[in-house]
Amino acid sequence: MTENGPAAVDAVVLDIEGTTSATGFVVDVLYPYARERFGELLASRGDEPAVARAVAQVRAEIGEPDADAARVEKVLGEWVDADRKATPLKALQGILWAEGFARGELVSHFYPDVIPVLRRWHADGVRLYVYSSGSVSAQRAWFKYSAEGDLLGLVSGLYDTENAGPKQEADSYRAIAASTGIDPGRLLFLSDRPGELDAARAAGWRAVGVRRAGEPYADADFGDHPQAAAFSEITLAARSSS
Ligand SMILES: CSCCC(=O)C(=O)COP(=O)(O)O
Ligand SMILES: [Mg+2]
């Protein structure tokens, strides 16, 4: 499909799960990796500022200010089972995943069509950003430890629900646009979830639904959003210096 908006695209903002990468990998590999390590993290590293902060957020969210480590671990497990994109869960997962990637125990997954297109867009001067429910720390590791090596040089910035806000709210996209300094109409968001596409468009962005066979949202109603089954189907309008 061709992205035929009124102006050229200056930057593409990428969702990860279901868009650049397989949900199956996240659910079957990453989730168990973190889940097996929550107990040890909470028991032995609870004083680390990032851990303590996330634990406080979990306690606040469940309305149990005195919840002990075992109770917090149980809640985290329930959130994983429900695939809740809760910010403190993502923060704790991100700590463990980043360490696993750095140790060589994890290698990120990208669909085969993605990296060649990201390299081409980057070479063409299109800026690339990430906006995922996965924490910034997890995103950094995801792009650094891919099967094709370190891809962080392609990426100009990383956004998550902590620094930008929930992915189904237009204000989050307004905040990202302001942070990048790019006109919203020249930002293109790629995502597998119609609710995220709706929010981006409500903020004045362009949006394309990435609808990959076998992904959980492949059969969802994408309304009138343009759609693509792979990045190779997305052609950005020619850019000019004006
Ligand atoms: C490296 S991000 C790990 C994936 C994850 O936990 C997640 O929630 C991704 O959700 P997305 O917003 O990218 O669909
Ligand atoms: Mg997604």
TrEMBL record:
Keywords: Amino-acid biosynthesis, Hydrolase, Magnesium, Metal-binding, Methionine biosynthesis. Binds 1 Mg(2+) ion per subunit. GO terms for molecular function: acireductone synthase activity. It catalyses: 5-methylsulfanyl-2,3-dioxopentyl phosphate + H2O = 1,2-dihydroxy-5-(methylsulfanyl)pent-1-en-3-one + phosphate. It holds the Pfam family Hydrolase. Pathway: Amino-acid biosynthesis; L-methionine biosynthesis via salvage pathway; L-methionine from S-methyl-5-thio-alpha-D-ribose 1-phosphate: step 4/6; Amino-acid biosynthesis; L-methionine biosynthesis via salvage pathway; L-methionine from S-methyl-5-thio-alpha-D-ribose 1-phosphate: step 3/6. Its EC number is 3.1.3.77. Its cofactor is Mg(2+). InterPro entries: Enolase-ppase_E1 (IPR023943), HAD-like_sf (IPR036412), HAD_sf (IPR023214). Signal peptide: none annotated. It is an enzyme of class 3 (hydrolase). Belongs to the HAD-like hydrolase superfamily. MasA/MtnC family. Bifunctional enzyme that catalyzes the enolization of 2,3-diketo-5-methylthiopentyl-1-phosphate (DK-MTP-1-P) into the intermediate 2-hydroxy-3-keto-5-methylthiopentenyl-1-phosphate (HK-MTPenyl-1-P), which is then dephosphorylated to form the acireductone 1,2-dihydroxy-3-keto-5-methylthiopentene (DHK-MTPene). Monomer. This is Enolase-phosphatase E1. It comes from Streptomyces atriruber.
